[in-house]
C-alpha cells in the first residue's frame, strides 16, 4: 500500500537510541519516502540516525534539542523549515521516566522535569509546526503517550500525569487543525521492548508482572509501534483526527 509519504518532511523527537521507538519510526518514515529530521538531547545518537536515513536514500538532519527549553525547540523548527522548505509531520516521541515512587516521595523538581519534557516539550514543538502545516494545508501531528496516561500507574505520578495531559493536548490540537488540513492523534502504547526495559530502568519483577497481564504474552517491538505511527502520519489516515489509538495487545482488557 502506498502511504503517500514520498517527499514529505517529518520531525521525529527522541530518536537517538537504535532500540527505541523514535529510531524505528524515523526509519519507517524514510523507507516510505519521507525526509526526516531527528532531534534528541543525545546528539551522537541522532547523528547516527541521520546517517542511517541517508543510507536509505532520503535527506536528514540531526539536531541536539532539550525540548524542555522553548527557545531550543523554536530554533530547531526554524532550522528544519529553512533546510527543507516545509514541515509535514511531527512525531512527539521524546519522553523520560525519571522517578519511581509515591506522590509523597516524588521530589517537586523531579515532577517538574517530567512535566517539562513530556508535556511542555510536545506543546512547544506543536506550537511551532502548526502554523507551518496550516499555511501549507497539510499536516500530521502524532503524539506518543502510554496507557499509563489513561489508567494511572502506581509509583509513576509525574509520568502518568504528563502522558494524560498529552492526550488532552492532542484533542485540542485536533480541533484547532481540523479545518486547516492538519490532523492530530495520540498513540497510547502498552509494553514496548525498548532500551529502557532492557537496561533495567524498571524493576524486572514488575516488568514480568506486567507482561503476565498482556493477553499476547509478550512486549511489542519498537517496529510494531513505528508501523502504526507511520500509518497515522500518512495520507491514508486523512479522516482520523483526535483519536487515541491503542497499541497495547489487549492489556487493558485485564484492567479491573
Q: Provide the domain count.
A: 1
How are the strands of the biggest sheet laid out side by side?
3-2-1-4-5-6-7
**What is the 3D form?**
globular
Report the β-strand fraction as a percent range: 15-25%
- Looking at the overall shape, the CATH architecture is 3-Layer(aba) Sandwich
Q: What is the average per-residue confidence, as pLDDT, rounded to a whole number?
A: 92
CATH topology: Rossmann fold
Overall structural class, as computed from helix and strand content, comes to alpha/beta
Record field, number of beta strands = 7
Q: Largest sheet, if any? A: 7 strands, parallel
Query: What is the gyration radius calculated from CA atoms?
Result: 17 Å
Describe this structure in words.
The chain is of the alpha/beta class. It has 9 helices and 7 strands; from the N terminus they run βαβαβαβαβααβαααβ. It has one domain: 3-Layer(aba) Sandwich (Rossmann fold). Helix 1 crosses helix 9 and helix 3 runs parallel beside helix 4. It is globular. The N and C termini lie far apart (38 Å).
Provide a brief overview of the structure.
With 256 residues, the protein is an alpha/beta fold.
List the helices and strands and how they pair.
Elements: E1 9-13, H1 21-31, E2 35-40, H2 43-55, E3 60-64, H3 70-84, E4 89-92, H4 108-136, E5 139-146, H5 148-151, H6 157-177, E6 182-189, H7 195-198, H8 204-211, H9 222-232, E7 244-247
Parallel strand pairs: 1-2, 1-4, 2-3, 4-5, 5-6, 6-7
Helix pairs in contact: 1-2, 1-9, 3-4, 4-6
Amino acid at each position: 500500500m502506498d502511504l503517500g509519504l514520498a517527499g514529505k518532511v517529518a520531525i521525529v523527537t527522541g530518536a537517538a537510541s537504535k532500540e527505541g521507538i523514535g529510531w524505528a519510526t524515523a526509519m519507517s518514515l524514510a523507507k516510505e519516502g519521507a525526509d526526516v529530521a531527528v532531534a534528541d538531547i543525545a546528539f551522537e545518537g541522532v547523528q547516527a540516525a541521520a546517517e542511517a536515513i541517508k543510507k536509505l536514500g532520503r535527506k536528514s538532519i540531526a539536531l541536539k534539542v532539550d525540548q524542555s527549553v522553548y527557545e531550543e525547540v523554536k530554533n530547531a523548527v526554524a532550522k528544519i523549515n529553512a533546510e527543507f522548505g516545509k514541515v509535514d509531520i511531527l512525531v512527539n516521541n521524546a519522553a523520560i521516566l525519571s522517578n519511581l515512587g509515591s506522590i509523597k516521595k516524588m521530589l517537586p523538581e523531579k515532577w517538574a522535569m517530567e512535566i517539562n519534557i513530556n508535556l511542555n516539550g510536545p506543546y512547544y514543538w506543536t506550537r511551532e509546526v502548526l502554523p507551518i502545516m496550516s499555511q501549507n494545508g497539510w499536516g500530521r501531528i502524532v503524539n506518543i503517550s502510554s496507557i499509563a496516561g489513561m489508567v494511572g500507574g502506581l509509583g509513576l505520578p509525574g509520568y502518568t500525569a504528563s502522558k494524560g495531559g498529552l492526550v488532552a493536548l492532542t484533542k485540542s490540537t485536533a480541533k484547532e487543525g481540523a479545518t486547516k488540513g492538519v490532523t492530530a492523534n495520540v498513540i497510547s502504547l502498552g509494553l514496548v521492548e525498548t532500551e529502557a526495559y532492557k537496561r533495567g530502568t524498571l524493576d524486572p519483577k514488575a516488568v514480568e508482572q506486567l507482561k503476565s497481564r498482556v493477553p499476547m504474552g509478550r512486549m511489542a517491538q519498537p517496529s510494531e509501534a513505528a508501523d502504526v505511527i507511520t500509518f497515522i502520519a500518512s495520507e491514508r489516515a486523512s479522516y482520523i483526527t483526535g483519536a487515541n489509538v491503542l497499541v497495547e495487545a489487549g492489556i487493558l482488557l485485564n484492567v479491573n
